[in-house]
Design brief:
The protein is 24% helix and 21% strand. By secondary structure, it is of the alpha+beta class. Bound molecules: flavin-adenine dinucleotide. Flavin-adenine dinucleotide binds next to β4, α3 and β11.
Length: 592
């Protein structure tokens, strides 16, 4: 990894905003351009060599190659034909570009794999004329090495993929309790949005050294970032130690800095077993709290690590249940690599034809589509011999490939006490069912993808195994000091094919209900940064009420003044006074 010795520890000084941000107008949030089909494979986008049509930005450092490249996010809700892009090769490149951007009133956006939904890399209205440069971090900044023996820690470049990190850790004998399901996410991208998997301690399970049941950001021991050094009046490489309170905002920064590398707490690797169930009805699984039977609560108690995937208009969800199993159970199939559900990563012609018909004006086929997906799942589990899998944790924790169905998703985390997790789920499912039926009665089928439910712990800073680790104040699962009894978060997602008619209305109505329902001493709900939230009928990220009220409020209530929404936003501003790490959406979300 490229290293420099610019290791400046940050100073807590606060300077006024210097007012050099580029003038970029905030336009419509929803791009109408996406035309590709949702099952089309997302290949890497080749750089364009042709610079003839538009001159590169003035004074851009000559020795850093700049090219035009299309940008498209995961669902293609944001799709831009050409953006100036570069692939910095060293820390010096990053520092040079940052200071050039400040002097020339440009904005720079670090990016990983763009496997994201929300406009936190670029906003849809950006184009070649916009004063923005994309920094592709995935070509370089990928080194990794173990830097502490016990408790173990790894230092990893922000451009490394999660799959390569977990593979490296496995070879060294280490791993993580949980993580996001895809492998082609960059470490920088995952930390920027508090990437999470699923898992709380099973009944009787005690936390081991290095384990966290929270997000990947809660593993950070230190970050090296390119940030503004007020002493030297320039952007420099600075080290942010987890024990320094000013590091807090950088742990989940939505791309409002460049993370170059991170030191992460990890743990001894374990073998996991993952069993799938398709024979339990939704009625039983999502029953009211306290019900007997095979409820989500019962599986949380026995294994702690669960995910339910439920297609609309079907009776039985697909439930995955992970347990820690040192030796291979007799019936389980040992797996030698990740991504062991090929039926969900490869879309059949039948499935793609049916989606095509639905999107071409036959929404009434949605129930048939849900049933087809449930059948594909059951048969796939059977024919791929995937009902009961066992192996090193990485092989069971990574299970989504880039070839999976390309859908949009909303996403929220509901903080509550473990004893109320089943209630949270039951109420959500009830509301969803009644809305789905009401819309269907009206001939509307806004949701054609599955519901996904996972449960994690919160970002307890003690899990970093440091004396004085700071909180992760912009994490969706940062604990509330006024509710120490809230010890888990239920992550709720609903997926649908992009531009499905009435999906904006459905998501908006459901979101409003959720913000009003998960309140008081019972629960609190926060948005999942990378996904859809802030809905109006027009689509996600358009609700002023959510952007200006609910987001700040839910990261302020119960939080200490020194580590809440306002203090974090002001810290990010202090470390980027020229506003080079912004875009029109971030301007709206985090006004300076
Ligand atoms: C199919 C699919 C499944 C997913 N499953 C999960 C899941 O199970 N759990 C979960 O938590 N999330 C999940 N996600 C969301 C995903 O984790 C986030 O969208 C993540 O940010 C994507 O990483 P990326 O490398 O593609 O980042 P990008 O999309 O390229 O960037 C995302 C943000 O990170 C910032 N960023 C990227 N690199 C850096 C850097 N070096 N320094 C500073 N900022 C940086 C960008 O500026 C941007 O703000 C899923 C996404 C998809 C498409």
């Amino acid at each position: 990894m490229d290293q420099t010795n610019h290791d400046n520890h940050i100073t807590p000084s606060r300077r006024a905003f210097l007012g050099t941000t580029a003038a970029i107008s905030a336009g419509a949030m929803i791009s109408p351009v996406a035309t590709a089909t949702p099952w089309e494979q997302l290949d890497p986008i080749p750089p364009k060599a042709d610079l003839a049509t538009m001159a590169p930005p003035t004074n851009f450092p000559r020795d850093i190659p700049l090219f035009k490249q299309a940008f498209r996010n995961w669902s293609r809700g944001i799709q831009i034909d050409d953006l100036w892009t570069c692939q910095p090769t060293s820390v010096e490149d990053l520092i040079t570009i940052a200071n050039w951007a400040a002097e020339n009133r440009y904005r720079i956006r670090p990016r990983g794999y763009s496997h994201n939904w929300s406009p936190i890399v670029v906003s849809p209205e950006s184009n070649l004329g916009t004063r923005v440069i994309l920094l592709d971090m995935t070509e370089h900044f990928k080194d990794m090495t173990m830097t502490q023996d016990w408790p173990p820690a790894v230092t990893v470049g922000a451009g490394a993929s999660m799959e390569s990190l977990l593979t490296y850790l496995e070879n060294e004998g280490y791993g993580v309790t949980s993580c996001p399901a895809p492998g082609d996410l960059s470490v920088g991208g995952v930390l920027a949005i508090d990437g999470h998997g699923t898992g709380i301690p099973a009944e009787g399970e005690t936390r081991e050294v290095g384990q966290t049941y929270g997000t990947m950001s809660n593993r950070v021991l230190s970050l090296k970032c390119v940030a503004w050094n007020h002493k030297n009046d320039r952007y420099e490489l600075m080290t942010f130690d987890r024990s320094h309170p000013d590091t807090a905002a950088m742990l989940v920064a939505l791309g409002r800095t460049i993370v170059v590398e991170a030191e992460l707490r990890v743990e001894e690797n374990h073998n996991l077993r993952c069993e799938s169930y398709v024979s339990i009805s939704a009625e039983e699984m999502f029953a009211p709290a306290g019900a007997s039977g095979r409820t989500m609560e019962s599986f949380l108690n026995s294994s702690g690590r669960i995910e339910a995937i439920w297609f609309p208009f079907t009776s039985n969800p697909w439930l995955k249940v992970w347990t820690v199993q040192p030796t291979k159970p007799f019936w389980a199939r040992e797996v030698s690599g990740p991504f062991n559900y090929p039926f969900s990563d490869n879309i059949s012609e039948e499935v793609s034809n049916l989606i095509g018909e639905i999107m071409d004006g036959a929404p009434g086929l949605t129930p048939q589509f849900g049933q087809l997906m449930a059948t594909v799942t059951s048969l796939g589990l059977l024919f791929d011999n995937a009902f009961d899998l066992w192996g090193p944790s990485k092989n069971l924790l990574l299970y989504v490939k880039r070839t999976t169905l390309r859908v949009t998703a909303n996403g929220y985390a509901v903080l509550t006490r473990r004893a109320d997790a089943q209630r949270v789920i039951h109420e959500f499912v009830n509301k969803y069912n009644s809305m789905l039926q009401a819309y269907a009665d009206d001939g509307k089928y806004p949701i054609n993808g599955p519901m996904e439910i996972r449960v994690t712990g919160l970002d307890d800073p003690a899990h970093a195994e440091l004396d004085d680790a700071c909180d992760v104040p912009l994490s969706a699962v940062v604990p509330c000091e006024d509710h120490p009894d809230w010890d888990c978060a239920v992550w709720l997602d609903l997926l649908t094919v992009p531009r499905t008619p009435f999906s904006g209305d459905f998501y908006a109505e459901l979101e409003q209900w959720m913000f009003e329902n998960y309140v008081g001493d019972y629960a609190s709900m926060r948005v999942e940064w990378s996904k859809g939230w802030g809905y109006t009928g027009v689509g996600p990220w358009t609700s002023d009420q959510v952007i200006n009220k609910y987001v700040p409020q839910t990261l302020t209530d119960g939080r200490p003044a020194k580590a809440n929404w306002n203090s974090s936003v002001s810290l990010l501003q202090d470390l980027d006074p020229h506003g080079i790490y912004r875009n029109p959406f971030l301007d709206k979300l985090m006004p300076s």
